[in-house]
Design a protein that fits this description.
By secondary structure, the chain is mostly helical. The protein has 20 helices and two strands.
Length: about 550
């Protein structure tokens, strides 16, 4: 956990430094266009196979072939993993060529991309990004073997080394362009190439780190992890095959799911890359970088934890087995799930209230302190603060839905999610292309997308509990105590009143720092009110963390 937080904070700090040195526009092009290219190659090439290989149990063949151990060769299940992990490398190479042709042909029609003044070394940076993606794919055999052997600390160590190398390469390249050409931030000739240098450094470092550390974990040479070998016979009944028909079919299924997931998660980047200007991309990337702190440090761990809890409680109630178990057991599991949903819902509403009040009011000050004085930046930050609570709420609701839904229901859910994303993309194009609302418009369109997904999850959850004959979670049980709501509203009123009274000092750094101190004091008051009036909820959170679901209460 500590290393994960380090990686996230290091990435955030590097991005802030990069915006200061390279300028917002270059950061936007790298964060939207180049990152979309990179994620498309990596995600579509390896995600489906990675998920499929989670089903392969290496320990099941630990004693099946002692001769292979004596000859220092991979075991049969290990060889299956190696054979399958080599497929993303070949797939990524083919995909990289196609995507380069698409990007190059599109940039040929965009003077903004080809102009040496606005985007120097654009084509070269594009090529380096594609090469870096393919190099990173070369770590797949070692990565999936490390995961099969449960070497999570090794993975985290390699990730930390690679992130450090990326940060160093980006900053060093930018400083090189800054000091040797005496360029301003927006005119640094290496501003795009710096991101490409960072990505290739990351790719080379993560491959080198895995080679270094996996060499001491495996009983055979590293080069054998890159040699496909047909499996003559195995205990699973596989003959003369490389990966087996069942694993191949499972991988194909997961690849199809990864296509949908990529479309759902990268819809905003697709719209921005096609229709937004480089300045709008820069604002969106800047705001997303700030918003990634609560999203990754708070909301993502909550979503992952809730998914694990729901798998142990709500998923125990399988609609196909209701006739085989006593109804009392099903209702007890469902009540536990309802209590967990209520606790998480209240937690998200509390966090959302704090973000809505303090985030929206302090966004212009944070933008000014970060030397982003454009009104569009402040507007986008305000919109993102309103968007974050919806993101957190949707996260744990979808975690529950995916934990309890049957396979046929999941297909229907994915269909609805694709439909919502299409609505979002159409609206996003409209607000960008027609209304000219920029990054704030994109974020508001995403809020509508999240709202539709939350409504669908709410309807699904109500129907799920209704089938069991019990009431679902109620919004009234999730609402914070009136005293907490009053403290939040009072804090917001004080901030607004003082800002209005001293509006002539809005651009003063000293006044902005004093306002931040005031915000800290008022935020402390909000936390104290939560401590005083939400003790039953706090105890419920503690019980939830300890796994004691039966005694959870929210009020």
């Amino acid at each position: 956990m500590g290393l994960q937080i380090f990686v996230r904070l290091a990435t955030f700090s590097m991005n802030m430094l990069v915006i200061y040195i390279a300028g917002r526009k270059a950061f936007g092009v790298a964060s939207v266009r180049f990152e979309l290219l990179l994620s498309t190659i990596l995600f579509l090439s390896r995600e489906g196979m990675r998920n499929a290989l989670l089903r392969v149990n290496v320990s099941s063949s630990s004693n099946s072939s002692p001769r292979s151990r004596l000859n220092k060769r991979p075991l049969e299940q290990e060889q299956r993993i190696i054979n399958a992990a080599l497929i993303p490398i070949a797939a990524g190479m083919a995909m990289a060529g196609c995507l380069y042709w698409m990007y190059a042909s599109r940039s040929a029609q965009s003077p903004e991309s080809l102009s040496n003044k606005s985007a120097p070394y654009y084509r070269l940076s594009l090529i380096v990004y594609i090469v870096a993606a393919w190099v990173e794919l070369c770590v797949e055999p070692l990565f999936v073997l490390s995961r099969a052997h449960v070497l999570f600390k090794l993975q985290a160590k390699c990730e930390g080394i690679a992130v450090s190398c990326r940060c160093a390469a980006v900053v060093a390249t930018l400083l090189l362009g800054h000091y040797f050409t005496i360029a301003e931030a927006d005119n640094n000739p290496l501003r795009l190439l710096a991101f490409a240098a960072g990505q290739i450094a990351y790719a080379v470092a993560i491959v080198a780190a895995f080679v270094r550390y996996m060499a001491s974990e495996l009983d055979y040479p590293i080069w054998m992890c890159y040699m496909p070998r047909k499996i003559a016979r195995s205990d699973a009944g596989l003959e003369n095959s490389y990966i087996g028909r069942s694993l191949g079919s499972l991988a194909a299924t997961f690849v199809g799911q990864s296509l949908i997931k990529h479309f759902l998660t990268q819809g905003d980047s697709m719209v921005m890359a096609k229709f937004a200007t480089t300045d709008e991309m820069g604002i969106f990337a800047f705001v997303s970088n700030y918003g990634s702190i609560p999203a990754r440090v708070i909301f993502l761990p909550l979503e992952e934890a809730s998914r694990a809890v729901f798998s142990k409680t709500a998923a125990a109630v399988n609609s196909q087995d209701l006739a085989k178990r006593p109804a009392a057991d099903d209702k007890a599991n469902a009540r536990d799930a309802r209590q967990v949903l209520t606790v998480l819902g209240k937690l998200q509403l509390l966090l959302g209230a704090i973000l809505t009040v303090f985030g929206t009011l302090y966004s212009p000050i944070l933008a000014s302190l970060a030397r982003q004085t454009d009104a569009a930046v402040g507007q986008a930050l305000v919109a993102y603060c309103l968007y974050l609570p919806l993101m957190g709420l949707n996260g744990f609701l979808e975690a529950f839905v995916h934990s309890v839904a049957s396979r046929s229901q999941l297909v229907r859910i994915n269909t609805w999610m694709v439909g919502f994303t299409v609505v979002y993309m159409v609206l996003a194009v409209y607000v960008l292309h027609r209304l000219g609302l920029g990054s704030a418009g994109i974020i508001f369109a995403n809020m509508l997308n999240m709202g539709l997904r939350i409504i669908y999850c709410r309807v699904f959850i109500s129907a799920w509990f209704a089938r069991l004959g019990i009431a679902g979670p109620q919004l009234s049980a999730m609402l914070p105590h009136p005293a907490v709501i009053g403290t939040c509203l009072g804090s917001g009123a004080v901030i607004v009143a003082i800002s209005a009274a001293f509006s002539h000092l809005q651009n003063s750094t000293v006044f902005q720092l004093l306002m931040l101190a005031l915000g800290g004091a008022l935020g402390t008051a909000v936390l104290v009110s939560i401590w005083l009036y939400e003790q039953p909820f706090i105890r419920s959170v503690r019980r939830l963390r300890s796994g004691n679901l039966g005694s959870i209460k929210t009020s």
